Amino acid sequence: MSGRRDARRELMSAAISLSLAHGFEATTVDEIAAAAGVARRTFFRHFRAKEDAVLPDHDACLERVRAFLDAASPLDPPLQVVARAAELVLDMYAADPETAVRRYEVIRRVPALREWEIAATSRYQRAFVTYLNARRPAADLDGFRLHHEVAASAVAATHNHVLRTWLRATAPGDVRPLFTAAITEVLTALTPWLDSGTAAPAATPADDIMIILAPRTTPLWKLAESIRAAADPAP
User: Fold this and answer.
1) Which of 213, 46, 23, 5 is nearest to 113 (CA)?
2) pTM
3) Where would I find the HTH tetR-type domain in this sequence (predicted)?
4) Which of 25, 106, 123, 148 has its C-alpha lying 20 to 30 A from 232's C-alpha?
């Protein structure tokens, strides 16, 4: 098993290094396998496609997130549980900061990889929504679906903001304190609204999507306030 993990790491490292040196599109599976010192068939024992060798293992991480949410105590505040689940995703990147930074540089250069990453990370947000819905009494759920969508979106956005900030740092340190500070701001703003007991009308298909436009430098607490105001406008 250790040898299999080592081979996977070598293949990932080779894929990232070659993509940085020659471009992702120009890099072939054969070149990745040769650089890692393994056969082509070994590559496909570990990865379905070249993209999988560059992107994080979101499938495995999502399983860990879902297992954590399923095992959470019903006595724990739901948003705190979701925030801790988001930390599990950060842990995947923080386990190997050097690889995370190099991988980010590859993804940043390749629009197709960015789309793959966005699609993969959106599954975490859906897991958060599913968990929040399950924690709400069935009789109240229809009136709180929007609340849960907004809360899950806010946690995911906070995670993504912190992750990008950390990856862009010259010498990334511990990402957890950054996330703790940021998510505390966001949850402080959102929790009273989520727990207010004032249910919004059930969402219609046209209301399912909310877009907030703001400068990149907007503080997280102000983004959270904007989301809350847009989701629960004054009468």
Assistant:
1) 23
2) 0.78
3) 5-65
4) 123
